[in-house]
Write a structure and sequence with these properties.
Elements lengths: L1 E6 L15 H46 L1 E2 L14 E10 L3 E3 L4 E27 L4 E14 L25 E4 L3 E3 L2 E3 L1 H4 L6 E2 L12 E3 L2 E4 L11 E12 L9 E9 L2 E3 L1 E2 L5 E2 L1 E4 L4 H44 L1 H11 L3
Family: Belongs to the TMEM43 family.
InterPro entries: TMEM43_fam
Organism: Priapulus caudatus
C-alpha cells in the first residue's frame, strides 16, 4: 500500500530515431524477428504437447489412488499389511522441539515460524511516453517517487534523483524462517514434501517486548521507529507468522490436524509412485476424506491444464506475430497500400 506519493519533475530524455521512417531499417528489424517467432512457436507447441500428456497422466494417477487407497484407522500404530501401500490418515500434528526467535523472545510449538521484516523506503517508478509527429519519434521518460513498506532493500543510489530520495544502505533486521527438524502426523513422520505443504500461515498477534528492546508493539508488529502512525524513512516493522500449530504458551487456537495421502513405510509417510509414473504425496490442513482430497487435486489439475494451454496458445500467437511483421512491412512499401494506410490514418 502506498502511504505517500510524491511526484517529481525529473530528467526528461528525448531520442530522435532517424531510422524510424527508413524502410530498409524496418525490414532488417522484421527479418531479425523471424527466428524469435519460430522459437516461440516451437516452445508453444512443445508446451501444449507436454501439458496434454501431463494432464492425462495426472488424471490416471488420481483414479488409481482413489481405487487403491487404504484408510488407516489409528494414527498411533502402523498396520503391517499396509506397508508399501497408499494410505489415508487423519491425525494431529506433532513435533519434538519448540521453535523460537531469541532476538524477539518469541517461542511456540509449530512446524514453521516465519519472521517477516519490512522497512519504510523510497520507491522509484519510471514512466515513458512516446509521441510521433510523422518525422520522428520522441520518447519522454519521467520518474515519480512514493514511500512504501518493502521487505527487500531498495537501493536509492540507482535512482534518477538519489540526493532527494535516500534510503538506508542496509536493514538492521532481516527476514528469517524457522522449521522443525521433523514433523509428525500422529506417530508417523512426514516426508519433506509433505511438510512443504504445511503453509497455513497465521499472524502471531500476542507479542511481548523482550527485555532491553527499543522496539514498540503495535497492531501485531514489533516496530522500530519513533511514530508508528507516522512512519519515517528507515523505520522497520517485524511480524511473526506460524504454520502447523501444536502447542502454545498463550492461547492462539486449537492444534492443527492434517489429512494425508502417502505411502506407509514403517512409521514414515513417503511419496507413492503411481503406475502412470507420477509421485503422489498429498497433505491438507483439517479433516478431509480421501475422496475429498483427490477431488481437490482434480480441480487443481484442471486449472493448471487450462492455464498452460492458454500460455502455449499465447506463445504461438506471439511467434506468428513476429513472423508476419516482415510481410506487413513489405506490403506497406507498395505505393497503393501505403497511400491507403495514410488515407485511413488521416482525419476526414
Amino acid at each position: 500500500m502506498t502511504d505517500h506519493f510524491a511526484p517529481e519533475k525529473t530528467t526528461v530524455t528525448t531520442e530522435e530515431d532517424d531510422d524510424e521512417d527508413d524502410f530498409f531499417a524496418r525490414v532488417r528489424r522484421s527479418v531479425a524477428a523471424v527466428p524469435l517467432g519460430l522459437l516461440l512457436i516451437a516452445i508453444g507447441v512443445g508446451l501444449l504437447f507436454w501439458n496434454e500428456g501431463r494432464a492425462v497422466g495426472t488424471a490416471r494417477s488420481l483414479e488409481e489412488a482413489l481405487s487403491l487407497v487404504r484408510p488407516l484407522r489409528s494414527h498411533e500404530v502402523a498396520v503391517e499389511e499396509y506397508d508399501g501401500k497408499l494410505i489415508h490418515l487423519v491425525a494431529p500434528l506433532r513435533t519434538k522441539v519448540w521453535l523460537s526467535d531469541p532476538a524477539y523472545n518469541v517461542e511456540l510449538s509449530a512446524v514453521k515460524l516465519k519472521r517477516t521484516v519490512e522497512m519504510y523506503q523510497w520507491v522509484e517508478e519510471e514512466h515513458t511516453r512516446e509521441a510521433d509527429d510523422g518525422r520522428e519519434v520522441i520518447r519522454e521518460t519521467s520518474y515519480s517517487y512514493s514511500k512504501k513498506w518493502m521487505e527487500e532493500l531498495v537501493r536509492s543510489a540507482s535512482f534518477d534523483s538519489p540526493h532527494l530520495h535516500k534510503n538506508p544502505k542496509q536493514m538492521a533486521v532481516t527476514s528469517a524462517e524457522y522449521r522443525a527438524p521433523a514433523a509428525y502426523a500422529g506417530a508417523f513422520q512426514l516426508s519433506d514434501g509433505l511438510v512443504n505443504r504445511i503453509n497455513n500461515f497465521k499472524v502471531l498477534k500476542s507479542l511481548k517486548l523482550p527485555q532491553g528492546s527499543d522496539a514498540k508493539v503495535t497492531k501485531g508488529y514489533f516496530y522500530h521507529g519513533e511514530a508508528p502512525l507516522s512512519p519515517a524513512i528507515g523505520d522497520v516493522r517485524v511480524q511473526f507468522l506460524y504454520a502447523g500449530l501444536l502447542m502454545i504458551k498463550f492461547k492462539l487456537g486449537p492444534r492443527d490436524s492434517v489429512s494425508v495421502l502417502a505411502k506407509q513405510a514403517g512409521l514414515r509417510l513417503v511419496p507413492y509412485h503411481t503406475r502412470a509414473g507420477d509421485v503422489l504425496e498429498l497433505l491438507a490442513i483439517g479433516e478431509l476424506s480421501a475422496a475429498d482430497m483427490i477431488s481437490l487435486e482434480r480441480a487443481y489439475n484442471m486449472k493448471l491444464t487450462w492455464g498452460l494451454r492458454a500460455l502455449g496458445w499465447f506463445l504461438q500467437f506471439l511467434g506468428f506475430t513476429c513472423m508476419t511483421t516482415i510481410i506487413t512491412e513489405l506490403l506497406s512499401w507498395l505505393p497503393l497500400v501505403r497511400d491507403f494506410i495514410k488515407a485511413s490514418a488521416s482525419p476526414p
